[in-house]
Amino acid sequence: MHIIHGVNGKHSGAEWKYRSRWIEQELARSIADHRVVVLTGARQVGKSTLLQHATATADWRTHSLDDADVLRQAEREPEELWAGTTRVVIDEAQRAPALLLAVKRAVDRDRKRRFVLSGSANFELLRSVGESLAGRAVYLVLRPMALGEIQSRGAPELMRDFLSGRFPAEGGAQGALDPLPLILRGFMPELPSLSSPEAVLSWWRGYVGTYMERDLRNLSQVSALTDYRRVMELAALRTGQLANQTEIARDAAVSQPTVHRYLNLLETSYLLARLPAFAAGKTARLVKSPKLFWADPALAAYLMGHYSLDGLRDAREVGALFECLVYHHLQVANDLLLPPGRLYHWGSQAGASVDFVLEWGRSLLAIEVKLSQTARYDDVRGLGRFLVSHPACRAGVLVYAGSEIVRLGEKIVAVPWTAIAR
Question: Bridge-partner residues for 114, per DSSP?
Fold first, then answer.
């Protein structure tokens, strides 16, 4: 573990530690196999810090296009950035699209060259980038930290076990961990070292402000930032719900195409995800709209206006925010699968639903989320319906806020949320 003292003076005298990220092994494997690795993720998830400390890239030459001089050089004489070396990290690479053609030429001339390009935008959704690096790049996503990363623990194997048809033993109390303080604080790497709830709120205020004032303007021309902020808040209030753009447009007093464009920008920034509906084959009468989830449950809570623990406990959105927390950890776990699977939600017109479906190759895993201390049979009715409709599904999993692993059926088991998070 690498330890850094006094980072920018932002941590009230607390020591800031670099905590190893679970994706480091995949980063090293990708660098060995591919000439260009593109590492993306939301602002402040720790991309630059990871590349500075990960064994695979710690000694590489590094340039950041946040530096105005470096940006000018990238636009005018990009080849000079890697003169004399074959291993280069370029941070915020999306700021100079023309640079990517030079990277393409460099790796085509010398197959031993290696580049890691990082940035706070989804490069696959930026057409010029995708065309420049087609067939040459592999894409990795760094997300906010998992609970286990914050606690310096190894990655959990539970999802792999379920996909292989292996179930954990019952019992095994792990000690319940209240998820609500974590929902308010969040999982960005800087947050664990902040000393007070007020400091956390100030951090999220600055985060949203920086995104609105800088990242958003770099991605697109949005003249009405007030409207954009309102759409963000309305989308946050619909966390875990079906995406109804017409409804958001009505409440924000903007057009539906405007809402669609704003949601696309949030998705390009890795702040928001639209979870698609699952449908196998030609199954009829299924809910087909995507659901909205935020990259960090604390960002959604902040945009909703939840600033205190007492207020959050009584809020009607608390269950949806817990679902967002579980979704975040499912994404992190899914990223570690080789290859990563696909996450969906499932719902029938008859009213049966499952919060998440993980599809990995031909294996399915159905997951229901409940913010409760007790695992109840009534909570797994949707899982039972899904298993009947998809008998090849490996397992139905109830993720809840208790502490015990409880078997609720031949293929249904309840696990504490911490079991998938650390």
Answer: 87
Q: For the chain, what is the largest distance between any 2 Cα atoms, rounded to a whole number of angstroms? A: 65
Quick one: tokens of 156?
């959990």
* Residue 95: per-residue pLDDT: 86
CA pair distance 266, 121, nearest whole angstrom: 9
The DSSP code sequence of 23-46 is THHHHHHHHHH-SEEEEE-STTSS
Distance (Å) of CA 28 to CA 92, 113, 350, 403: 20, 15, 47, 35
Quote the pLDDT of residue 254.
97
Question: Which residues on adjacent β-strands are paired with residue 366?
Answer: 357, 396
Walk me through the domains of the chain, giving residue ranges and CATH numbers: 24-141 (3.40.50.300), 148-420 (no CATH)
Angle at the Cα of 367 from the Cα atoms of 361 and 370, rounded to 5 degrees: 165
The residues, ordered by sequence, that sit 6+ positions from 247 with a Cβ below 8 Å of its Cβ are none
pTM (predicted TM-score): 0.93
- In the numeric block, which tokens belong to residue 375? 């695992």
DSSP string, 252-311: HTS-HHHHHHHHHHHHHTTSEEEEPBP--TT--SB----EEEESSHHHHHHHHT--SHHH
Name the residue with tokens 């294996």: 363
pLDDT digits (tens, 9 = 90+) for 135-170: 889 999 999 999 999 999 999 999 999 999 999 999
CB distance 87 to 55 below 8 Å: no
